[in-house]
Amino acid sequence: MKSPASFIDHTLLKAEATSAQIRQLCAEAREHEFASVCVNPAFVELCASELRNSSVSVCTVVGFPLGSTTTAVKVFETRDAIALGANEIDMVVNLGMILEEKWDLLEMEISAIRQMCTQPVVLKVILETSALTTPLKKRAAEIALACGADYLKTSTGMHITGGATREDVRLLAEVALPLGKAVKASGGIRSWEDMQQYLALGATRIGTSSGCAIVESWKSSQTS
Predict the structure, then answer these.
(1) In this structure, is residue 111 part of a structural domain?
(2) Which spans in the chain are helix H?
(3) Which CATH number is 208's domain given?
(4) For 161-195, how does the pLDDT look when each residue is reduced to its tens digit (9 = 90+)?
(5) Which is nearest to 73 in space by CA: 116, 107, 136?
(6) Nearest CA to 87 among 127, 50, 37, 147?
(7) Residues 125, 148: Cα–Cα separation, whole Å
(8) Ramachandran quadrant class, 148 (left: phi over 0; alpha: psi -120 to 50; beta: rest)
(9) 168 carries an active-site annotation
(10) Catalytic residue among 153, 168, 181, 194
(11) What range does the domain containing 55 cover?
């Protein structure tokens, strides 16, 4: 079986992350050939430098973790991150817009971010699915895709209601895959066993801070 590394966004989003830890993250990403590193915006430029001439993408977050900054701030964050070297953007939606069913505002916000993410920049929209009812998840997912999202992403991994679930990944896959779009599962995925379940349900990208351990576990499973 193909290494799981190519499905992993190797993630370090802790507030106390240091430059040394980010350099280590990038070194691990080079070694294992992860899909990307996912870091806070302050470290995008460093990652772009560390990963130059590699296959590893630089992913950053916008509106993270609450999603409650203004659209103008999110647009600026996105533009700035891309200028510094990010080629994947994980944006957090405004949950209040979804809970109040202000679909026109949600559409305007995601479209504004998409406009900044010209090809080949990848846009992933974080829906924080664990905080939403099933009808709201589905409607928000449909709007995100209609506005040009490349991926639907389950979670920030920071919300009190939890991270990815099998049910949510299945739902997002049912919406995204028929349209040729993709799903990223994140939040609480720490083992190869966990990851296998989400891949089987249709996720093609996994956000985790346990990427190295997952790859080592996969390697062990191939030799046992």
Answers:
(1) yes
(2) 19-32, 44-50, 71-84, 95-99, 103-116, 134-146, 166-176, 192-200, 211-223
(3) 3.20.20.70
(4) 889 999 999 999 999 999 999 999 999 999 999 99
(5) 116
(6) 37
(7) 10
(8) left
(9) no
(10) 153
(11) 4-219
User: Which listed residue (90, 150, 168, 194) is catalytic?
Assistant: 90
Q: Determine, yes or no, domain membership for 157.
A: yes
Residue 224 covered by a domain:
no
- By the 8 A CB rule, do 124 and 89 touch? yes
The active-site residue, picked from 124, 137, 181, 184, is 184
Does residue 65 sit within a domain? yes
Report the number of distinct structural domains present in the chain.
Answer: 1
181 is catalytic: no
Are the CB atoms for 145 and 175 separated by under 8 Å? yes
The per-residue DSSP string of 9-33 comes to EEEE--TT--HHHHHHHHHHHHHHT
Helix (H, G, I), strand (E, B) or coil at 142: helix
Distances in Å between the alpha carbon of 186 and those of 83, 126, 127, 158, 204? 26, 10, 11, 10, 11
What CA–CA distance (Å, rounded) separates 190 from 222? 18
Catalytic, 153? Answer yes
The 10s digit of each residue's pLDDT in 131-153 is 999 999 999 999 999 999 999 99
